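# nightly structure sweep
# worker-07 picked up a monomer target from the shared queue
# config: single-sequence mode, recycle default, output format = structure tokens
# input follows
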Amino acid sequence: MGSSNSLLSKIGLGALVISGLALLVTLVYVLLGAAGVITIKSAGDVTSLLTNGIIATALVFGFGLLAALLFIPGLLGSPRQGTTSFISSLLLAIVGGVLLFGVMTPRVSAGQSTSDLAAFAQTAKDNCQKPLQQAVDDITLARDHVYHAASDKAAVDLMNIDADRLTKDAAALGTGAFAMRAVDSTKIGGHLDLVNECV
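# output follows
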């Protein structure tokens, strides 16, 4: 019985070390982020940081819990062994659980919401802002052509060109409005008014 407790204690000690290292990596990431060494420049960076954070905190929690469970037989044996190791591994499991379920999991939800809003913003820019700005620019150009043409014939020629441009702009606005109607309103929450203003 003593040799099996000794083996379990050794495996528990290994799990405790892995849990501690995972916590150390998590803390280093936090400190580097606070110092401005780690910067977020894209949605991919956010996804990567969240994924790494979940993995690191899951390792802290999982291996801390495993180590605590493996130290229990030593506590129940006579003489008692591994009290400090058990308490250390239990504390690591608690810290890992708090980080995983209290910090990282809500961040994943917020990260998904941010990703959805970023996709919506890009859709609005491509399908609302750009076509509308192009139409305004072409209308302004057409007005300038009417007022500043060198002759009536030049004005007519320019108006034909402008009519083609404005027809293309109308088609682009229609396509953009259709794309904006296709936006999943459940993912953008309170920004539905922007969709309605564009459509």
